[in-house]
Design brief:
Number of strands: 15
Distance between the termini: 63 Å
Oligomer: single chain
Number of helices: 20
Structural class: alpha+beta
Largest sheet: 12 strands, mixed
């Protein structure tokens, strides 16, 4: 239990600042807002101690100090120097939330990697967070939203060149539109149509694969601090859980390859910073003046293709097509194609269109068995569309030994698994995303029995990762063509959409009248 001697002490604690950190922040605030006053640490110690009794004059608080405190907190200095119990009773400190504990682990990781003393990264994130007002966040978002997918892809193509041997950027024509993505792929990685069954889904975990450890300099360290501060301000969930990192890949009649393990922080505070750096450089017109993080972590296509030499994390995402019967709204049976707009609380593809489900490839309970691509795809289907909140490891601790056991499945997933043929899951393509070097397994999920829609269509609902869910009909080729041409797609989402449309069209049937998707590259 914690009590506060003054409202001022409480307000400083709520900002998660020490007195020394707040004094530094107050000095920066005064300089940026043209205020003449500063607050020394010893004077601040006396103020938060509350040596006055209720009703006594303010005493030795100087006018410039009082004005500065009032500007920072937006209330009178009289209110700040009151005992909180006078108005609202005793304030009790709450136990730290899961998000705070997760962030603490990430901050400890950053201290260790940079070589800072324990707690330095926490102080720097707090100071940055204190300066990061709502207006600044809105400005950042608005500037980044102006950078479109085409602009980013074109800039990356110029940085890396368009091909490396058999590899090239994925490009396609859908209806009357031509699109180019930032996905580096090759012909043998496309149109796979591999069922995600044990016979064809054979990605395996390598024990003890060495993890590349690149020293973090000042530029990388401050980029990581900024990322953490913005994530905290926006409510983005950050948990230092293990991710699979790709070591090798061999695609033919099966998905063969190897993965190792890496902590989430190793990716989120290194390679994942490249996307924000690129978008900010394009938004501010500073692309040509240098990209220090990209130059260090992913300088050329050779580095992109050097999977064991870097932390190549990635994900699994799939176009989901659910059979629907003819009803009063539709003249013929079709497939509902699901598309999401990613919410502002996710790390990747914020506010972009993407297929759903989409998730990081990472273990849930059994790190060896979960290395298969299909394990992640089914988990994400359960979590993102069928409401299994306990599978969200960023919010819940994994306590179940068999979280995907039949007895724990949602009712929709249990129905799909009861009979063969109700659910088709396939890998349709693979590539490496030049935005941050991620690997992307594109897939297709087809629910072929329209009894599912009758029973469970009303229960299909996107989780917190999506700001909205949109449905398109597999019979409406014109709208689907317009969808594929929209600028708001994430590159990996568009890749999975186009590969999924090609495969769904090949499967044919009366439910499908989709536009032709023609490969233009590589």
């Amino acid at each position: 239990m914690r009590t506060f001697r003054t409202v001022l002490e409480q307000r400083i604690w709520e900002r998660r600042l020490t007195l020394e950190e707040f004094a530094e922040y107050a000095e920066q605030f005064a300089r940026e807002h043209g205020e003449p006053g500063t607050i020394g640490v010893r004077h601040l110690q006396r103020l938060v101690a509350g040596r006055r009794r209720p009703g006594e004059p303010l005493g030795r608080v100087q006018p410039v100090t009082a004005r500065l405190l009032e500007r920072i907190f937006g209330v009178s200095v009289e209110e700040l120097l009151r005992d909180p119990s006078e108005a609202a009773g005793e304030v009790v400190a709450k136990p730290p939330a899961r998000a705070e504990l997760d962030l603490a682990v990430v901050l400890d990781w950053l201290d260790d990697r940079v070589g800072w003393a324990a707690g330095i990264s926490r102080s720097k994130v707090r100071l940055h967070l204190a300066k990061l007002g709502e207006g600044a966040l809105l400005d950042h978002r608005a500037r980044r939203a102006r950078v479109g997918r085409k602009q980013l892809t074109s800039a990356l193509a110029g940085y890396y060149g368009t091909s490396a041997g058999p590899h090239g950027l994925y490009a396609a024509r859908c209806g009357g539109s031509e699109v180019v993505t930032s996905i580096l792929t090759r012909r043998s990685w496309l149109d796979l149509g591999l069922p995600l069954t044990p016979e064809h889904d054979r990605l395996t975990l390598v024990d003890g694969a060495p993890l590349p450890r690149t020293a973090l300099g000042d530029v990388e360290a401050m980029a990581a601090v900024t990322q953490l501060a913005e994530s905290a301000a926006l409510g983005v969930r950050v948990a230092n859980l293990p991710l699979y990192r790709l070591l090798s890949i061999d695609l033919g009649t099966a998905i063969d390859g190897t993965v190792g393990m890496a902590p989430f922080a190793e990716y989120a505070l290194t390679a994942d910073l490249l996307e924000r750096e690129a978008i900010d450089a394009l938004g501010t017109g500073t692309w040509r003046s240098g990209l220090p993080l990209r130059d260090k972590y992913l300088p050329d296509l050779r580095a992109v293709l050097d999977l064991p030499g870097r932390v190549c994390a990635g994900g699994v995402l799939a176009l989901c097509a659910i059979a629907r019967p003819r009803d009063q709204f539709r003249d013929a049976p079709d497939f509902a194609l699901l598309v999401q707009e990613r919410s502002g609380h996710v790390l990747n593809a914020t506010a972009r269109l993407a297929v759903i489900p989409k998730g990081f490839h990472q273990p849930l309970a059994d790190s060896r068995a979960d290395a298969r691509v299909g394990a992640t795809l089914l988990r994400e289907l359960e979590e993102e569309l069928f409401g299994r909140g306990d599978l969200d490891t960023t919010a819940h601790s994994g306590r179940a030994a068999l979280p995907m056991a039949p007895g724990r499945l949602s009712e929709p997933m249990r129905w799909l698994s009861e009979e063969p043929g109700r659910l088709r899951t396939e890998c349709t393509g693979f590539g490496l995303n030049l935005v941050s070097g991620n690997y992307e397994f594109a897939g297709l999920i087809v629910i072929e029995d329209d009894e599912f829609w009758r029973r469970y269509g009303g229960q299909v609902e996107a989780n917190w990762e999506a700001a909205g869910l949109q449905l398109y009909s597999s019979l409406d080729g014109g709208l689907v063509s317009e969808l594929a041409a929209r600028e708001s797609w994430s590159n990996e989402g568009l890749f999975a959409l186009l590969q999924g449309l090609r495969r769904l069209r090949d499967l044919g049937g009366e439910r499908v009248k989709l536009p032709v998707v023609e490969h233009l590259g590589p």
